[in-house]
Design goal:
This protein has four helices and 16 strands. It folds into two domains: about 90 residues, 2-Layer Sandwich (Alpha-Beta Plaits), CATH 3.30.70.260; about 100 residues, Pectate Lyase C-like (3 Solenoid), CATH 2.160.20. It is of the alpha/beta class and about 220 residues long.
């Protein structure tokens, strides 16, 4: 699926890159699967769509907008090589841009570091690995496409690997979450968590296992 639709982090939002060599129906289906899988992460985020040299008429552009909106994703920009596609996109309410040639080698984007406590009702979303210096209180949520490290107490919901990455992990100084999720697997933190110390949660044999930090070996 990643060969058809790739989702990457970008400054201020998300880049959705749609392969321009495959049939449109296949690309649209792959996009819908990605949006369904990553709905918890992508909801409410601003997205830039990159369609390359693909030819899209007015109806196809509107279907693209409606598809994104159905998952509560704000598709704000379409990047396309074709002038006709850019014109159709502007008519549908998008801003448009011409693709910019990227250098062949790019440095990896470092993990995001956030310093704050999350109160009930607050949601923190991030595409990539996330380090939080603070507490996740009951009723708060942290969602990331990569791994999540919390230097604090976790009593709310924590969801790592939100785009389907089963290699993601959740680490916390105190893991007392109401629910933890990694990719498509979910679990509750252990109830006998008193004074256990820092822990790490990961997927093993299709279930989430929680280990003491010092005992964990990947």
């Amino acid at each position: 699926m990643s060969d058809v639709v790739a989702i990457k982090g970008a400054r201020g939002g998300i880049r959705v890159i749609i392969n321009d060599a495959c049939p449109w129906d296949e690309a649209l289906s792959a996009l819908q699967r990605q949006l369904e899988q990553g709905s918890a992460l992508l909801q409410g985020m601003r997205v830039s769509l990159e369609v390359g040299n693909r030819q899209l008429d007015n109806d196809a552009v509107q279907v693209l907008r409606d598809t994104m909106a159905s998952y509560q994703v704000v598709a704000s920009t379409i990047q396309a090589e074709s002038r006709d596609v850019r014109q159709a996109a502007r008519a549908a309410g998008f801003t448009t841009s011409v693709p910019v040639v990227q250098p062949p080698v790019q440095a990896d984007i470092p993990p995001s570091v956030v310093m704050r406590n999350l109160r009930s009702g607050q949601v923190l979303r991030h595409h990539g690995d996330l380090t939080l210096l603070g507490d996740v209180n009951a009723g708060a949520e942290v969602i990331a496409s990569g791994s999540i490290v919390v230097f604090g107490r976790v009593r709310g919901l924590v969801y790592a690997g939100a785009m389907g990455d089963r290699n993601a992990v959740i680490c916390a100084i105190e893991l007392s979450a109401t629910q933890i999720r990694i990719a498509d697997i979910r679990a509750r933190a252990p109830e006998d968590n008193t004074n256990r110390g820092p822990e790490i949660a990961c997927i093993e044999d299709d279930q989430i296992m929680v280990h003491l930090w010092q005992d964990y070996r990947r």
